[in-house]
Amino acid sequence: MNFNPSRDFARQLDTQDELASFRSQFVITNPDLIYLDGNSLGRLPKAAAERVSAAVAEWGSDLIRGWNKRWWDSPTRVGEKIARLVGAGPGQVIVSDSTSVNLYKTVMAAMALHPQRGRIVTDALNFPSDLYVLQGVIRQLSPSTLHGKSRAWGRHQIVRIESQDGDVSPDLDALASAVDENTSLVTLSHVTFKSGYLYEMAAITEMAHRKGALVLWDLCHSVGALPIQLDRCNADFAIGCTYKYLNGGPGSPAFLYVHRDLQEQALSPIWGWWGQKSPFAFDLDYTPAPGIKRFLAGSQPILSMLALEAALDPLLEAGMDRIRCKSVLLTEYLIYLADTLLAPLGFTLGSPRTPDRRGSHVSIRHPEGYRINRALIDEMNVIPDFREPDNIRLGLAPLYTTFGEVWESMDRMRRVVEDRRFEKYPKERLTVT
Amino acid sequence: MNFNPSRDFARQLDTQDELASFRSQFVITNPDLIYLDGNSLGRLPKAAAERVSAAVAEWGSDLIRGWNKRWWDSPTRVGEKIARLVGAGPGQVIVSDSTSVNLYKTVMAAMALHPQRGRIVTDALNFPSDLYVLQGVIRQLSPSTLHGKSRAWGRHQIVRIESQDGDVSPDLDALASAVDENTSLVTLSHVTFKSGYLYEMAAITEMAHRKGALVLWDLCHSVGALPIQLDRCNADFAIGCTYKYLNGGPGSPAFLYVHRDLQEQALSPIWGWWGQKSPFAFDLDYTPAPGIKRFLAGSQPILSMLALEAALDPLLEAGMDRIRCKSVLLTEYLIYLADTLLAPLGFTLGSPRTPDRRGSHVSIRHPEGYRINRALIDEMNVIPDFREPDNIRLGLAPLYTTFGEVWESMDRMRRVVEDRRFEKYPKERLTVT
């Protein structure tokens, strides 16, 4: 595509955008605010707001009967909707708990499937919380910490592949070499949280399977942003959050996928009544439910769950192929403008240049990134987010981000730097709480 | 108290009820419906409905900034509100995840604190899901299942005390004998889910501590129904749900308590960024947060969380002593009416007679309990619930249950049996799918 840097060109791209009408399905209270953090918390879909309101009314009038009407089967029902977005056939996806808890459940299940192996391979581009979960699992499987005998479990270890290019892309050769006959599990973020690097799911999964390892994909930054084919790639496990491109709302419950072929052997470490074969028989002994339900434990937050259920409809209606198509155009256009308008001001690209290897957010780096990000939020009505040490992350959500917003945000960023507006902010990081 | 069985007497009790005005703080769409299942799902507080509505609006307009404003610290902020209901000093309660997940986290933490011991003591009156969680933990700690070597971990076992009197009360002597020098943990439901038996928390905790065991209380059926003194009883851990007497809404997030003295050594098995010392530093290695926050893992469902936050206010305003006082009067009155009106029709009491040993729900047993329960719901506008094999469970929530409703429900139950209305229902159990 031949872009040009004029504002008119952005207008033209918006006129040609076949997904443009989806923006009206979202609540937009301030049209001048350019929201580029839908990769952290998606905008509020009008349908979600209505569904929450209805759910509260159901609580008031149906009371306990609400569970039988629409609530009890929501973890599988909403799971099936997500399944359509991630290329999973029926009976393999449930919605429950947080991403971290789901990662824990699936990693523990994977490790138990390979009791003779002990290595987990991941990379330094992975979301740190994922690394923490893995570290907790290793600590637990190693009796040196729990029990005082380290020898038996000495083979348990995490191999974390370091990036060669300043945290933009993984070192694929190092990754392939690290996967050996002692590897239980390879687990990676499908799209990395900082640079937006997109792993080739089919190739990596196949490589790991050749060594007999299982593969678990974290889909947080890819689900809802691009087509995913879990079944076709033969992924073993996947997890993901629902509050980014799925627009489920703050802290909406996460999902997990377990490949059909593994469901009979795989067990969640957390046994609860929702994962029991007959939860209302109240047997005193646990018998896992057949299929994916055994990965449920306790009750799910229904108001947040039903907001998510409604939020998924616009994505299903638009279709992941059209969403990806616009996403690539948005990120290509943003990178073109950054190269043209911002590179002369000291900005560099912190994301892959090839669209094939990139998700739907772009990192733009600048030594003053932290203060520029603050100025954008406080003075320029642009909301990106910042990730250490110098990344301004710009999330482009095809259902509501316009090309005009991309142009405008690049222009405002240019003004922040040209006018030195960032200089009044302290360099010390603000911390939450 | 000298009760009498007339409807007028019920009216008189309502007139004298100092908590009567709290009923108006709840949404009641059908005044003829007698809701006696607040011990499963509490009624909708008006303040919770308003708060959810405001939270949805915050999502729409604050977008990601909502996290810094009111969302990020909600697990501890709402935790501190619950702390005031359970006799816990600051910094010991958080709201997160489901009850089952919290039980798993705290049981695993407790087991790791006692690596030389291996026995968990519980009872058959415990909620089955709690037993499932324990079974999962034992399976995991025993390498016979994970690793093929059973000897080293052979001491891991669950001792489940059976009830001597048809699941009404525990066998306290058997319980005391089961706690030995190999016991890591004693875990019990403070109020049992079926009979409503209320354990003496201080005495049991002290008994277990004498043997060097830790104690974990499940407060699901006691929190919000009666005063609890976790600190004063020296409880080590506690967990509980928030959708029963706390009125947090369907599947609202659960809470957990870790005694201050244990917080430095105790670790959650699920390591996530919310439990990391500096979550936004994105270090690649996990360092547990100081204090109770280390028991957090991932993001919490904010809509459900904020509904809960608002729902707690009426409880705090009424005060647990007044709530308990009315609760005892309600259950005493119900038992009096059951003895007077229902015993001649074949009903027996499935709950302790002494109010000191009883929570805020009462089980009434009848061989036709299942069908009577169905007739009450389908024809008589009374909602109790049923627990196998023959328990009709009647939950009395002091903030909104009236004495008039107790009288009326007993009268409707009498009519169901006298008129044989239950006979048209099949004996086969309906199951929730």
Structural key phrases:
homodimer, Aspartate Aminotransferase, domain 1, Aspartate Aminotransferase, domain 2, 2 domains, 14 helices
Task: Describe what you observe in this structure.
Two copies of one chain form a homodimer. With 433 residues, chain A is of the alpha/beta class. Chain A is built from 14 helices and 13 strands. The first copy, chain A, has two domains: 131 residues, Aspartate Aminotransferase, domain 1 (Alpha-Beta Complex), CATH 3.90.1150.10; 267 residues, 3-Layer(aba) Sandwich (Aspartate Aminotransferase, domain 2). A seven-stranded mixed β-sheet of chain A has the order 2-8-7-6-5-3-4, with helices on both faces. In chain A, strand 12 and strand 13 form a beta hairpin. In chain A, helix 2 runs antiparallel to helix 11, helix 4 packs parallel to helix 11 and helix 5 packs across helix 6. Chain A is globular. The two termini of chain A are 45 Å apart. The interface between A and B is large, with 98 and 99 residues.
